Structure formats: structure tokens, C-alpha cells
């Protein structure tokens, strides 16, 4: 494993962190778009179960979560428990929101909570300007008609709040470097599976008789959790928390584009303007100097 860790660390250093973030931004909503298509056949909770279970299964041989948890000190174990519980509930709330609301609106609400994280770390006028520009773009993307579905809005808000928790806890997990962050992510995903096991297994069980549904569920896990969360760790290991939080402004834009391609939710001119402003904010932003 030491050689694999060195290889992962070197790979993370060789590639600019914004490239890793770009990979995460694409798969962050590409996977959920597949999940939405599976909802009628597997059920929302069943798809959430497949996402966590398959991700935990893929991570296990490489990250050996049992070893990570066993060797961790008390503080790190609390971090792993918190991150695992956050991932389990956040992903479930995300899918319950997607069942009722357009993906672009859920993504915009998901981003809104990160504003506080980005603002907390701002130390330059340029970054504050970048934040204001991205905020304006996100508000345009939201086009707040505010849903007539209060339950869907509740799940979206819960997902957004937990997404902030994911950023904070995920950044702490990445503090030990790229390889250590991915190992801790694997352990947290195993904990998330234990948390979600009794919630979604009953629905997921109905899909086990159809190989195509099982493979599709595994694909959702790889696209929604393995690729984007691993990419997040590689980016977090090199970006300040505030810079990473501001870069998340690209998520509403990626959600709008992917929803158009995968779910036939075609963006309007207003949506395109919002996307352009979000991109401009990302371009203006520069990492704030760390204390």
C-alpha cells in the first residue's frame, strides 16, 4: 500500500487541483441523472442504497476501511463517523429531493449553503467580487418560483445543509494528503453503508432479480460517489477550504447542462446567463492566502 499511496500522492500533485474539481463537477450530477432514470424501477431509497453500497464495495479493496478505523485515534474515528453519517443522510435527502424537484433547483439550493464557507475564508477584494458574481449567477439559475412541493423543498434544504457538512468534514479528511484522504473516504463510505443498510435495502432487494438493474445501480454508485468524491479528495488536498467552496459554484451550471443532455430539461436564455456568470466568478476567483 505505501507504493500505491505514493503513486496517488504524485498523481494528485502532477494534475492541477481544478482539473480534479472539474471531474467531480461532471460526475456529481451525471450519476444522479442516471439515478433519476432508475427511480421508477428500483425506488428512491433503493437507488440510494445501491449508490452507497456499491461505492463502499469498490473502495474496500483499495482503502481497507477496517484497517483505517482500527488504527485511527479517537478524534479521527469521530471524523469518520461524522463523515459517514453525513454521506448516508445527504445522499438519501438528495435523491428524495430529485424525485420531486428539477435537478437545477436542487443543485442551486445545494450550492447556497456553501456561500457561508466561501465567505468565511475570503481575505481579498478580488475573491469577494468573485463570490458576488457567482451568487448573482446562481440566483438567476434558481429562477425562484419556489416549489409548491414543501416536502421536496425540505429534502433539498436538508441536502444543502449536509453538503456544507460534507465540505467541512471532507476537507479535514483530506488534511493528511491525497492518499490519506481517499483512505479515510473509503472508511467513511463503509460507515455510511452501515447507516443506510436498514433504510434502503428492502427496496433494493426487489432489483436483485434483474441483472441489468443491479449493474445500473452499481454504475450509479461509481459515477455518483466513487469518481466525484475521490476527485474531491484530490482537489481538497491542495485547495484551501474557501477556494474549494467557491469553486462549487460551478455545480449549478454543470447540473443545468447535464440535466439538459440526460433528462431533456432544456435551459432557457436566463439559465445560460446564470451559467455564464457562474463561470465568470470561477475565473475571477483566486485562492485566498492561508493564515
From TrEMBL:
Keywords: Membrane, Transmembrane, Transmembrane helix. The chain crosses the membrane at residues 34-58, 78-97, 103-121, 128-146, 152-169, 181-201, 207-230, 242-266. Pfam families: EamA. It comes from Pseudomonas schmalbachii. The keyword Transmembrane helix applies. The keyword Transmembrane helix applies. This is EamA family transporter. Residues 151-284 form the EamA domain.
